[in-house]
Design goal:
Elements: H1 31-36, H2 45-50, H3 54-72, H4 97-100
């Protein structure tokens, strides 16, 4: 048995909006441009405490990639490190998630 169609949305626009000025709009006109240079990732709040800025997230991800690549390579063919890592900052942001709990 088919369900009855759901109630349609009412006109929730305020009276001060003049819809005659909105003619000719194209849905998704700038969508491709907007996503072309964007790679937004949301992290969980407990991780946001550990990684307070973009630099710390990128440093951790690069270390993870380097570690995964090194583990995948045979022992005799491991490449040299690409760049020297900055020393870990001492302070609130350098604690691990386990130490905080």
């Amino acid at each position: 048995m088919k369900k009855a169609p759901s109630k349609r949305f009412g006109n929730d626009l305020r009276q001060e909006y003049d819809l005659s000025q909105l003619k000719g709009g194209v849905h998704g006109k700038y969508y491709r441009q907007a996503i072309a240079g964007t790679n937004l990732v949301l992290i969980d709040p407990e991780l946001a405490d550990v990684f307070p800025d973009t630099k710390s997230v990128n440093r951790a991800l690069r270390l993870l990639v380097d570690t995964a690549e090194a583990a995948a390579e045979p022992a005799g063919r491991r490449p040299a490190r690409r760049e020297k890592r900055a020393p870990r900052a001492s302070g609130k942001g350098s604690q691990s998630v386990r130490q905080r709990r």
